[in-house]
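So, could you explain the following?
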Amino acid sequence: LPAIADAVQGDLTILADSGVRSGLDVVRLLALGADGVLLGRAFVYALAAAGEQGVAHLLDLIASEMKVAMTLTGARAVGEISRESLVRAGG
């Protein structure tokens, strides 16, 4: 994703749709260069079977996970998430 984001340099909007299932996934994809992130459809459909409460619960969980991930990276707003927010394994 970073190579694509660098290549288009704002000329195109990049939406990531790759089985996103947590707030951490959202923060990670934004840090890698996505302009927006779509939740995995199969995952949302499964939660929607629980009705409106199931979907509301999912959105609350994702928002809470994003807040934790952003706190850990020092980002106070979604716009502050960047590649520098990520930590590479092993150092």
DSSP finds four helices and two strands in the chain. The chain has a mean pLDDT of 80. The beta strands are 15-20, 36-39. Helices lie at 2-8, 23-31, 41-48, 52-73.
